[in-house]
Structure formats: C-alpha cells, structure tokens
Amino acid sequence: MTTRNAKVVSLKGPQKATQELPAPLQIKIYDLMVKGRVLEERLIRMGKSGLGFFWIGGPGEEAFNVPLGLLIKKGEGLDYDYLHSHYRQSGTLLAMGVPIIDVLRQMHSTATDPYTGGRNFVNHYSIKKWNVVNTTTPIEVQYSVCIGTGVAQKRHGGEGITIVTGGDAGTAEGDFGTCLTWSSRKGNELPILIIVTNNQWGISTTYEEVHCEKPIAARGEAFGIRSEIINGNDPIVSYAAIEEAMSTVRKERKPFLLEARVSRLYGHSSASGANWVSGEVDCIPEFEKQLKQKGILQDEDFKKIKEKYEQESLDSLKQVLKEPKPDPESIFDHVFVDGKDAQIPWPRWLKR
Ligand SMILES: Cc1ncc(C[n+]2csc(CCOP(=O)(O)OP(=O)(O)O)c2C)c(N)n1
User: How far, in Å, from the CA of 273 to the mean position of ligand 1?
Assistant: First the structure.
C-alpha cells in the first residue's frame, strides 16, 4: 500500500507541562476556570429549581477551554478566527469576554438573551462580532458547516483560521468524516483546527462501545492531517499545545487534529440528573496544587476568587429574574433576513 501525504507527525502530544507560562497568565487562566465552574454550578442549580428548562455545559473541560478562548484571534470577518463550537464551551466563551449575566439570560430564556432571544438551550452561543457561529443542538453538524469558513479563509489568505470543537461520541457521525475529507484535499487543504474534547462518554454510551481500539486522533493519519492527543485536564499543557497547533494552521494553511482528553464532572446534562460524578479528574484542584507548589497562589486566594464569582452570579441571577420573556409575537423574528419573516402567514393553531 502506498501512502499519499505520508508526512504525519506522531500522535503522542504533551501530557505534562514542559514549559512554564508567566505567573500573571497562570492566574488569569485559573481565575477564568473558576469563573466557568461557578457559572456552570449556578446554571445547574437554576435547572434544579425550575429557573431553566434544560442544562448542558462544560464543567470538567475548563483546563482546555479557557486557554482556547484566550488564544483565539477575536474579531469579525475573514482576518479573524471563526469558532464553530459545541455546548460544553462556556470556558472558551468566558475567556473571550462573554459576561456571566448573558449566559444566565439564556438559561432563563429571557428576551434579553443576546444569542437566541430566549429560544435555545443554554451554552448555545452566536456572536457575529467575534465570528462565533451559532451552536447547534444536533451534534457534530459544526464539523460540516466549518468547511464553509475554512474555504473562505483559504481563498482570502492571511492568518485567520477556523476552529471547530465537538465531543468524542459524535465523531462516529458522518459530519466528522466530511470534515476530515474536505479539509485535507490535496492542494486544497483548509486552515481548520479540528478539535475533539474527549470525555470518554456519549450520553450514556462508553467510549469503548462506540470506538475502535485506535484513538480518534489516529483518524487524521489516513488524511495526512497532523494530529495530536494531549492531556486537556492540564491548562499549561493545553495552552502550549493549542498555541502550537494554531500557529501551524495559521502559517501552513492546512488542517490540524487535536484530541484533548478531558472530564465530565456532572454527567451529560440535566437529562441525566446533573449530579456530581466521582472518580473523574477535576482540573481545578489539580491546578491549585500546581499553583501552590509554585508559590503563585495560596488557599486564601482560591477562596476569594470563588467568592467573587459566586457574588457576581447571584447578583446577575437577581437581575435576570426581573427581565421579560420573549413576546409570542416575535416567534418568527430572525428566521429570515431583511424582515421577510413578517410576510410568513401565521399557522392556524397559533392564535395571535
Ligand atoms: C445528530 C444528533 N444525534 C443525537 C443527538 C443526541 N445527543 C445529544 S448529546 C449526545 C452525546 C454526544 O456525545 P459526545 O459527542 O461525546 O459529546 P459530549 O456531550 O460528551 O461532550 C447525543 C447522542 C443529537 N443532539 N444530535
């Protein structure tokens, strides 16, 4: 068997940090990780107390998702990065600058939810000014959709790249294969950073039930895509690996497949109870151990940071509870551009 594009770099990526990050950056990463965790735990409590219909989110993925958000070249248009994310990406979005209150608005389905006007589940972002493409509830479609911005950025040139994220179980669906095929065509390779955050679970199916023996990242080999597996529970490892993968995609204008091994700390979603799961690695206390050992932060700092975000999330919730729900009259808003939605005849069953 002959191999085309045989230049594939080893899958084995960093599992332990070999390089240090400046202390202020480590503090910033820790701060955002805690912000993400406090936010998610607030959302879970909202779900359990009837203040939101459904919860799904990213507790356990902060060590990877926060560095990703900090490294994204944020802006609008082809010179900036496009993010096609899935529903566990709160750490990334917070690191990009999303305020806690807006996420609570989406959880409570208020008209003030800036991403979907109270129409979609929480953690489904859509931010035009930062190239954050709508998160979809059907899983994996983002791997097909991202080809569009990848092609546009290939034609445009420059340094902007497309970033797509999704879970491990979803890679069994056709969209993931589509992404590998379309991003790696010879002479037409696309500048896409293909990320899989592997928490070893579908909803209730285990990794072993869905996948063959080889790791997900190994699938990149068949397409000549440079691929790597990293310990996504370590923020220093994640930062360095994402930075390197991004810079490769920016310069070479070719795809890169990054598989990050992460945890799922509250199960799949509110549908599975959203209760704490023991036995998984929790990236926050793990990072705390590192920060203490290096003398960067101590127990009282951890406590203060947590309290700061507990207070912010509580104040935000109080505000959100005063805000209006979407007007039923607005149900067809944003369905078509240029207000064409106004011309849609209302179905008989929907009384105006
Ligand atoms: C196309 C489609 N099929 C099935 C589902 C139901 N579903 C929602 S999440 C999920 C599991 C996804 O697991 P994985 O891709 O590993 O991501 P994770 O939730 O673990 O991050 C499934 C099957 C869906 N939302 N969309």
Answer: 16
Instruction: For residue range 43-98, list pLDDT tens digits in order.
Output: 999 999 999 999 999 999 999 999 999 999 999 999 999 999 999 999 999 999 99
Mutational test site, ligand 1, from 203, 208, 270, 277, max ligand atoms within 8 Å of CB: 203
Report the CATH number at residue 244: 3.40.50.970
Residues 6+ apart with CB under 8 A from 213: none
Q: How far away, in angstroms, is 140 Cα from ligand 1 center?
A: 8
- What is the pLDDT at residue 292? 98
Domain count of the fold of the chain: 1
DSSP string covering 197-245: EE-SBSSS-BHHHHS-SS-GGGGGGGGT-EEEEEETT-HHHHHHHHHHH
pLDDT in tens, 268-321: 999 999 999 999 999 999 999 999 999 999 999 999 999 999 999 999 999 999
CA-nearest of 178, 181, 186, 183 to 163 is 183
Is 291 contained in some domain?
yes
- 332 inside domain: yes
Nearest residue by C-alpha to atom 25 in ligand 1: 138
15 vs 113, more confident: 113
In a domain? residue 2: no
Give me the domain span that covers residue 48: 29-206+213-265+276-343
Cβ < 6 A, ligand 1 pocket: 88, 137-139, 166-170, 199, 201-203
Pocket test for ligand 1, best of 90, 122, 139 (most atoms within 8 A of CB): 139
* Residue 5 domain flag: no
pTM, to two decimals: 0.93
Cα–chain-centroid distance for residue 125? 10
